[in-house]
Amino acid sequence: MKNLIQLLIVINLFITNIVLASGGISGGGIANIPQGQDREKYHLGKAIFNQEVSLEKQTNANVNTTDQEERLENLQGSLPNTEKRRVNLPDFSGKLTEEQLQALEYFIQVRFNIKLPEKKKDK
Q: Would you say which domain of life the source belongs to (predicted)?
Protein backbone atom coordinates (compact mmCIF):
# COMPACT_ATOMS: atom_id res chain seq x y z
CA MET A 1 0.00 0.00 0.00
CA LYS A 2 2.83 2.37 0.90
CA ASN A 3 4.49 1.70 -2.47
CA LEU A 4 1.25 2.42 -4.31
CA ILE A 5 0.89 5.82 -2.61
CA GLN A 6 4.50 6.69 -3.42
CA LEU A 7 3.98 5.63 -7.02
CA LEU A 8 0.85 7.80 -7.31
CA ILE A 9 2.71 10.80 -5.85
CA VAL A 10 5.59 10.35 -8.30
CA ILE A 11 3.19 10.00 -11.25
CA ASN A 12 1.26 13.08 -10.11
CA LEU A 13 4.45 15.16 -9.86
CA PHE A 14 5.64 13.89 -13.22
CA ILE A 15 2.38 14.74 -14.98
CA THR A 16 2.19 18.15 -13.27
CA ASN A 17 5.70 19.01 -14.45
CA ILE A 18 4.95 17.94 -18.01
CA VAL A 19 1.76 20.00 -18.19
CA LEU A 20 3.34 23.13 -16.73
CA ALA A 21 6.52 22.87 -18.80
CA SER A 22 4.85 22.13 -22.12
CA GLY A 23 3.90 25.72 -22.84
CA GLY A 24 0.44 24.48 -23.71
CA ILE A 25 -1.21 27.29 -21.78
CA SER A 26 -0.38 30.63 -23.28
CA GLY A 27 -1.85 33.99 -24.04
CA GLY A 28 -2.74 34.64 -27.64
CA GLY A 29 -0.42 36.39 -30.03
CA ILE A 30 -3.08 37.89 -32.26
CA ALA A 31 -5.21 40.85 -31.36
CA ASN A 32 -8.91 40.31 -30.79
CA ILE A 33 -11.01 40.91 -33.87
CA PRO A 34 -13.44 43.77 -33.19
CA GLN A 35 -17.20 43.33 -33.16
CA GLY A 36 -20.00 45.35 -34.77
CA GLN A 37 -19.27 48.03 -37.36
CA ASP A 38 -15.56 47.89 -36.60
CA ARG A 39 -15.57 44.26 -37.71
CA GLU A 40 -16.51 45.23 -41.29
CA LYS A 41 -13.84 47.94 -41.31
CA TYR A 42 -11.28 45.44 -39.98
CA HIS A 43 -12.09 42.83 -42.63
CA LEU A 44 -12.02 45.40 -45.44
CA GLY A 45 -8.58 46.53 -44.27
CA LYS A 46 -7.45 42.91 -44.01
CA ALA A 47 -8.60 42.18 -47.57
CA ILE A 48 -6.74 45.24 -48.88
CA PHE A 49 -3.60 44.38 -46.89
CA ASN A 50 -3.62 40.78 -48.16
CA GLN A 51 -4.28 42.05 -51.71
CA GLU A 52 -7.54 40.12 -51.94
CA VAL A 53 -9.31 43.17 -53.38
CA SER A 54 -8.54 44.36 -56.89
CA LEU A 55 -7.55 48.02 -56.75
CA GLU A 56 -7.70 50.27 -59.76
CA LYS A 57 -6.41 53.81 -60.19
CA GLN A 58 -9.02 56.23 -58.81
CA THR A 59 -10.22 58.80 -61.32
CA ASN A 60 -12.03 60.77 -58.62
CA ALA A 61 -10.67 64.30 -58.24
CA ASN A 62 -11.16 64.08 -54.45
CA VAL A 63 -8.34 61.52 -54.13
CA ASN A 64 -5.16 63.27 -52.98
CA THR A 65 -2.39 60.91 -54.11
CA THR A 66 0.40 62.75 -52.29
CA ASP A 67 -1.54 62.57 -49.02
CA GLN A 68 -2.26 58.88 -49.62
CA GLU A 69 1.35 58.17 -50.49
CA GLU A 70 2.55 59.87 -47.30
CA ARG A 71 0.04 57.99 -45.13
CA LEU A 72 0.90 54.67 -46.79
CA GLU A 73 4.65 55.26 -46.33
CA ASN A 74 4.04 55.95 -42.62
CA LEU A 75 2.02 52.72 -42.39
CA GLN A 76 4.76 50.79 -44.21
CA GLY A 77 7.35 52.11 -41.76
CA SER A 78 5.28 51.01 -38.76
CA LEU A 79 4.95 47.39 -39.94
CA PRO A 80 7.08 44.59 -38.47
CA ASN A 81 10.08 43.69 -40.66
CA THR A 82 8.56 40.41 -41.84
CA GLU A 83 5.48 42.23 -43.12
CA LYS A 84 7.55 45.01 -44.73
CA ARG A 85 9.12 42.41 -46.99
CA ARG A 86 5.75 40.83 -47.81
CA VAL A 87 3.71 43.88 -48.77
CA ASN A 88 4.54 47.30 -50.23
CA LEU A 89 1.79 49.67 -49.11
CA PRO A 90 2.97 52.75 -51.09
CA ASP A 91 2.06 50.79 -54.25
CA PHE A 92 -1.59 51.32 -53.26
CA SER A 93 -1.23 55.11 -53.55
CA GLY A 94 -3.94 56.64 -55.72
CA LYS A 95 -5.86 53.34 -55.83
CA LEU A 96 -7.69 53.61 -52.52
CA THR A 97 -10.80 55.50 -51.58
CA GLU A 98 -10.72 57.35 -48.25
CA GLU A 99 -12.89 54.62 -46.71
CA GLN A 100 -10.48 51.91 -47.89
CA LEU A 101 -7.45 53.82 -46.61
CA GLN A 102 -9.06 54.30 -43.20
CA ALA A 103 -9.95 50.59 -43.09
CA LEU A 104 -6.35 49.67 -43.94
CA GLU A 105 -5.03 51.96 -41.20
CA TYR A 106 -7.52 50.48 -38.74
CA PHE A 107 -6.58 46.89 -39.63
CA ILE A 108 -2.87 47.59 -39.19
CA GLN A 109 -3.48 49.31 -35.84
CA VAL A 110 -5.48 46.35 -34.51
CA ARG A 111 -3.54 43.48 -36.09
CA PHE A 112 -0.04 44.69 -35.26
CA ASN A 113 -0.96 46.61 -32.09
CA ILE A 114 0.41 49.88 -33.45
CA LYS A 115 -0.65 53.32 -32.29
CA LEU A 116 -0.68 55.70 -35.25
CA PRO A 117 -0.40 59.44 -34.65
CA GLU A 118 -3.67 61.34 -34.71
CA LYS A 119 -4.45 63.23 -37.90
CA LYS A 120 -4.46 67.01 -37.58
CA LYS A 121 -7.62 68.68 -38.77
CA ASP A 122 -6.95 71.76 -40.92
CA LYS A 123 -9.45 74.58 -40.65
A: Bacteria
